Amino acid sequence: ETGVTQTPRHLVMGMTNKKSLKCEQHLGHNAMYWYKQSAKKPLELMFVYNFKEQTENNSVPSRFSPECPNSSHLFLHLHTLQPEDSALYLCASSQAGTSGGEETQYFGPGTRLLVL
Amino acid sequence: TQLLEQSPQFLSIQEGENLTVYCNSSSVFSSLQWYRQEPGEGPVLLVTVVTGGEVKKLKRLTFQFGDARKDSSLHITAAQPGDTGLYLCAGASWGTYKYIFGTGTRLKVLA
């Protein structure tokens, strides 16, 4: 138990569906992240939110839409996904300092997404 | 584009053996982290190294950051089945919250 929870743990959706992934952190951190983990690629950073402001969008297609209503919650809204978007989506949080690059990221267990 | 290559990609060894995993890049990083990920879970941080040439020990695990801050190694002494998992290195650049993850090393330790 890392203090970061993700729901749902598993999701199957069609290409025309709209769904949302939810992440909640109970650690009092000020930065939250979305990562994509595919079988054939390294863990890829998708989005970074620092103090609820999006500070990083790593060239992610617009069919993925993040939302960070407060520092404890992070959502990833999904619409018209493709089969190649099937992957494990991981959320993480950290206490971002002023210099960056040395924080400990705490990861949730992930949502296993299958797009049919 | 910053890339972190890990080797080997897969490793299957017997309990009690020693092993080393490498993480290499042509880019310089301000810090480098090592994570272990078990099935059904997210990665868990093992260590952060921030100084070129730094060596850190965590029980049977020894981590080293290269002098030029471009590479790192993880050495496990007397591996145990509980060490089984996916090992990931991740590098960060100065002043950024953006971590680049390595390609991963999947380790299996047989009893």
Could you provide a short overview of the structure?
The complex is a heterodimer of chains A (116) and B (111). By secondary structure, chain A is mostly beta strands. Chain A has no helices and eleven strands.
Account of the protein in words:
- The complex is a heterodimer of chains A (116) and B (111).
- Helices cover 0% and strands 55% of the residues of chain A.
- In chain A, the strands form 2 sheets. In chain A, strands 2, 4, 5, 6, 9, 10 and 11 form a 7-stranded mixed β-sheet that branches.
- The mean pLDDT of chain A is 90.
- With 116 residues, chain A is mostly beta strands.
- Chain A has no helices and 11 strands.
- The N and C termini of chain A lie far apart (31 Å).
- Chain B has 111 residues and is mostly beta strands.
- Chain B has strands at 5-7, 10-14, 19-24, 31-37, 44-49, 55-58, 61-65, 71-76, 85-92, 99-101, 105-110.
- In chain B, strands 2, 4, 5, 9, 10 and 11 form a 6-stranded mixed β-sheet that branches. A 5-stranded antiparallel β-sheet of chain B has the order 1-3-8-7-6, with no helix packed on it.
- The interface between A and B is medium-sized, with 30 and 27 residues.
